[in-house]
Amino acid sequence: MGPAASRPLYLGPRIKRLRRELGLTQAAMADELGISASYIALLERNQRPLTADLLLRLARAYKLDMADLAADERDDYARRLADVLRDPIFAEIDLPALEVADVATSFPGVTEAMLRLHGAYVREQQALAGLRADGGATRGLDPVAEARRFVADRRNYFPTLDSRAEQLAGEIDKAGSIREALRQQGLRVRLLPSDVMMGSIRRYDRHNEQLLLDDTLTPTQRTWQMAMHMAYTALRPEISALLRGESFASPTAATLVRRALAAYGAAALVMPYDKFARAVDARAYDIEALAGQFGTSFEQVAHRLTTLGRPGQERVPFFFIRVDEAGNVSKRLDGAGFPFAAHGGGCPLWNLHSAFRRPDEVLTQWLELPDGQRFFSIARTVSSGGGAHGRPRTLRAIALACAAEHAGKLVYAAGQNAGGQEARPTPIGVTCRLCNRADCAARAEPPLGREILPDDYRRGAEPFAFAES
Question: What pTM did the predictor assign?
Answer without folding.
Answer: 0.78
